[in-house]
Amino acid sequence: MFNANNTLKTVRTDYQKGFLTEETVLENPFHQFEAWLSEAFDTGNDYANAMVLSTVDAHQMPDSRVVLLRNISYGGLTFYTNYKSKKASDIKTNHNASILFFWPDMERQVRIEGAIEVLPVKESDDYFESRPFESKVGAWVSHQSQVLKSLADLETSYEHELQKYAGKKVPRPAHWGGYVLVPQKFEFWQGRASRLHDRIQYRKASETKWTIERLMP
Ligand SMILES: Cc1cc2nc3c(=O)[nH]c(=O)nc-3n(C[C@H](O)[C@H](O)[C@H](O)COP(=O)(O)O)c2cc1C
Question: What ligand 1 atom has the least distance to the C-alpha of 144?
Answer without folding.
Answer: 22
